[in-house]
């Protein structure tokens, strides 16, 4: 069927479906989010260790993407985009320090409440939401529960604050008290309390973000002598530019034994992911046991990635490498059609909100820039061109800030005096300026506001070492990607506020730009 005709009939059916759907049960929604989990450390993408066995199986029995991307590799911008469906240039939240500047017309929580959902956060927020926005609120952070009450909670908070950036020994926090375990405990308890209304719960793990601490048996499960070695090193930073060198200098100032400790930190990071995987299994099996799995849309994803040793670095900070921008994304449960392999589509964290709108039979609010994934997730026809590429943003604007003597790490606040492993990798140097990335096919293009570009063939060069920008033999491919990036930049100009008189603002029901 011609997609344009299909789209028209879909509008008619959608209108009929709205009235019928209002008389039936709407699906529950469970968003399971990790913090700083890179996409390629999983069996379904070929990682040779059992790091995510349950989520791998969940993906193979349902649907998943291997070309899912964050909107910006930083927690607050990413999370604000997930709830508003708007990119950081539209939300105005382009750093972790701009949450109060959030700009949108209607967000996911508002739409859910209009549809009589009960809502909950259990875990990390780091967005613009607060306890008044939800029916239930139990917030955790990288330093334990936000409002510790018991002696045990206070002890855990004290440990996290002292561990700061890294903890090289087996964690003294036992499995039953690890944050992912306690978050799932609370999520299950809250779900059990829900009776009549459909529910939404954001199960938001602060891990595997630093401090890289993990208890047994996960600590030994991913010992340095067991994990695969990284394929890049600090020598590759020379090809990556000044900002990478600045971040490396900061990490060396903060973690003087980083090269020695890196294998153990990588093992801890992987152990944290496996611990989370086991807790996701417990949550999903609980839903199945209660007969809720087929009535619930479940999505497992992360806000952004982590170097995890790439280029000899840890955490995140600079650049738009795949290790930071590509995220895991698995969909399961209600009406999700089992796919034989990863869905061949470039998708974004901003696509979640419009997808949920379609799934519950509501319209996508004006101002949302993401696209509904519901047709492809349910096995329906969708325009392939719409998902042939994706864009990622970075930077708070202004000029790039070089490393000079007029501003030290301590003065900026990136490095605390005499505090080993205490630094903020999201800082004036790494986040200044403006960069954009477009991903399409085997190719990736990065441009900054100075006209400097990076061009990589990810099939041949997955670690983005050989910059092909300006190669005369690839001018046609470079031009094609530049055109695509420009088209994305124009598309993502904020449509709000809409014209106040006469003009009709045209858009498609799934927020697609391409319909054939």
TrEMBL record:
<protein>
    <recommendedName>
        <fullName>Sulfatase N-terminal domain-containing protein</fullName>
    </recommendedName>
</protein>
<dbReference type="GO" id="GO:0004065">
    <property type="term" value="F:arylsulfatase activity"/>
</dbReference>
<keyword id="KW-0378">Hydrolase</keyword>
<comment type="similarity">
    <text>Belongs to the sulfatase family.</text>
</comment>
<dbReference type="InterPro" id="IPR000917">
    <property type="entry name" value="Sulfatase_N"/>
</dbReference>
<dbReference type="Pfam" id="PF00884">
    <property type="entry name" value="Sulfatase"/>
</dbReference>
<feature type="domain" description="Sulfatase N-terminal">
    <location>
        <begin position="27"/>
        <end position="360"/>
    </location>
</feature>
<dbReference type="InterPro" id="IPR017850">
    <property type="entry name" value="Alkaline_phosphatase_core_sf"/>
</dbReference>
<dbReference type="InterPro" id="IPR050738">
    <property type="entry name" value="Sulfatase"/>
</dbReference>
<feature type="modified residue" description="3-oxoalanine (Ser)">
    <location>
        <position position="75"/>
    </location>
</feature>
